């Protein structure tokens, strides 16, 4: 369905029950008036607005905030590793695939995402200019990695830029900065900020999708990591780090990092430090294996998969600030499972806790970007004055969370920034 034009940006939802992003119960039947890109009024009484207004009868169905995924790689998730490593790789063709994936993400009900690293700025710009459809994007830009780190994507025949003077193809593509020493980390951080990064993504430990770094290694010295934090804080924003182990995460916290990505190998002591420090844990339910996954990657993630079963309940018990994301990489066929991954949280959380996490709580994490946030206004909630990122759900997801796993059928209306991108109520 074609998005509304600017002249049509008035919407009234009649007779809806609201999940506001925080409550454990739906509201009584209410009416919601959207003007421009904001929720103007919520009232039990009829709302009568003159002019060109789209009127939607909710018939007692659920109105809720748009979903938020805070660990997405729009580019790396839309392309396979084989495609990116191919000698015939074409940037424009790749961006066309990423653009299609962005639209599919929005139509799954994800009205906002935080891109956790990669070449994102052209796609974000196209979305914001309404040249293509997609969610709001909080971009990190190129990941920042030490030589031999999780973001060192060089092929075996690519030599070090430091010694041989030529950037790797991944660096030229905008996927990564290989930066060693305080000065290079400062430059890489500032380059991303210059292009519009809303937060900085640093690699602080080993990873499963990279060939050269074991999971257990700690990456970046305290001085290097603090350089990124200092540069980000000078711009009013923050650093998020990829890390699994207590050693890497303790160093990151000492450097002033505000958000840990993953953390599946964390111990109780470090989680208690995170809770006391107010450090966010943005974590996932990673897939053990898939047909597209290499044997090396399957082997490297075994301990991580085992660890995540312990991490979620322990972090919840200890009061760590929790956020949720998917982190799909190099397996485009997995993207269609984005919604169903929300259901994996049911082992440890109530439906209300889960819906709060993937709306209100994830939105609170996005607020750490401060003045570097690309969008002004509150998201993740249904309340007067909030931005109009809204889903109309056919049923009550507080009672039946599986509704969110079938967005094509159950998300009757999708609104982002006050514009209707889907409406199958008629």
Automatic annotation (TrEMBL):
Listed InterPro entries: Amidohydro-rel, Metal-dep_hydrolase_composite, Metal_Hydrolase, Metallo-dep_Hydrolase, OTAase-like
Keyword Transmembrane helix: no
UniProt xrefs under CDD domains: Met_dep_hydrolase_A
Keyword flag Manganese: no
Keyword terms: Hydrolase
GO molecular function, one term: hydrolase activity
Amidohydrolase-related domain sequence ranges: 62-411
SUPFAM superfamilies, alphabetized: Composite domain of metallo-dependent hydrolases, Metallo-dependent hydrolases
Protein name: Hydrolase
Organism of this sequence: Cloacibacterium rupense
UniProt lineage: Bacteria, Pseudomonadati, Bacteroidota, Flavobacteriia, Flavobacteriales
